[in-house]
Amino acid sequence: MSHILIADDEEILRMLIVDTLEDLGHDIEEAEDGSEALEKLQEQSFDLVVLDHMMPERTGLEVLQSLPDHIKEETLIIMLTAKAQDADREAALQAGARYFVAKPFSPAELEALVKDVL
């Protein structure tokens, strides 16, 4: 069982992701904005983070840029975003995301990715 953080400001989307990953037996925590996500990441260790790009307080990219390198090295980060241009993908990967999933996405696709990376 892995410890996963879901950071997205859209409650319905968070619920969908939580339901998908809890069914796999993972321990899930949620953050509804970038500041809350950064705080949780600095206080606890997570095996995986599903991070939205466009959130209030801090964007997902700002969260990544604020994280110390050791957290980014120890934590698998999936950037999940509607900002799916090549430049957005490159910026997320450069900032420390290891995977990039464009919205809209298939819950089955996310489930398969999580199974593969964990």
UniProtKB/TrEMBL annotation:
Give every Response regulatory domain span.
3-118
Which InterPro entries would you find in this protein's record?
Answer: CheY-like_superfamily (IPR011006), Sig_transdc_resp-reg_receiver (IPR001789), ST_Response_Regulator (IPR052048)
Keywords in alphabetical order: Phosphoprotein
> Which species is this UniProt entry from?
Salsuginibacillus halophilus
Q: PANTHER family under this entry? A: TWO-COMPONENT RESPONSE REGULATOR, TWO-COMPONENT RESPONSE REGULATOR ARR22
**Which residues are recorded with the post-translational modification 4-aspartylphosphate?**
52
Question: What is one GO biological process annotated to this record?
Answer: phosphorelay signal transduction system
Name of the molecule in the record? Response regulator receiver domain-containing protein
Q: Which residue positions does the secretion signal occupy? A: none
